[in-house]
Amino acid sequence: MIPTCKEVSELLSQGQDRPLSPVEKIRLQLHLLLCRGCRSFSRQLGFLRAAVRRYRDEG
Amino acid sequence: MPTRDSHGGADPAAIEGERGYLLRYARLQLRNPAQAEDAVQETLLAAIEGAARFSGKSALRTWLTGILKHKIIDQLRRAAREQALAGDDDDGAEADAVDALFARDGHWREFPAAWGNPDAALENSRFWSAFEQCTRRLPARTARVFMMREVMEMSTDEICKALDITATNCWVMLHRARLTLRECLELQWFGKTQP
Prior knowledge:
A: 3 helices, B: Rna Polymerase Sigma Factor, Chain: A, 2 domains, 65% helix, disordered N terminus
């Protein structure tokens, strides 16, 4: 039931591109609760998005 | 600088003033400087010709970016067709590189490190050269999809239509791009002690 880090990284990435289903969200949360590495990855995805836009807009 | 005169429409000097921004935008997406230059040139010409159609309801930059997007997507469609004919660029090697980040049981081989306060990096010009290098290292096809999503802010649907790929394919490429970029930034920047 609890997904692996690889699956979680896929879900987190897709979460930036499409709405996740309630089941997917629960599976994610269960894993994130237990996994510091994936929590870091999750924050870093947000950073990547912000960084690309900043680079685009301000050079 | 006023962006519209009393008759409505966009002012040519103001349009020309956005060239730098448009060029950076196009280069991120197209990589090839000559192609980027062409797309921007076409955009500026189209804008000056169609200046009267600029309603002033949106910002001039937004209007110009909208025109540029169309020019870029035309180029990307052409490139995608040519690449489809030429065959995939090294898809297998890229999949292997991503697989190598995870152990057989699906755990990270090396956990992503905590980056502390990464926003501080945004103020550091050396961070941006590392960032630029890392984006350039992405394989062409992956980079194209990633930039369509993040620079042009297209939806997965729009990207799939423009490049004639499936949504799954699109998500796989976006996932790879993000993993690769993250890994590169950690190696090139966040994993190093900053002087």
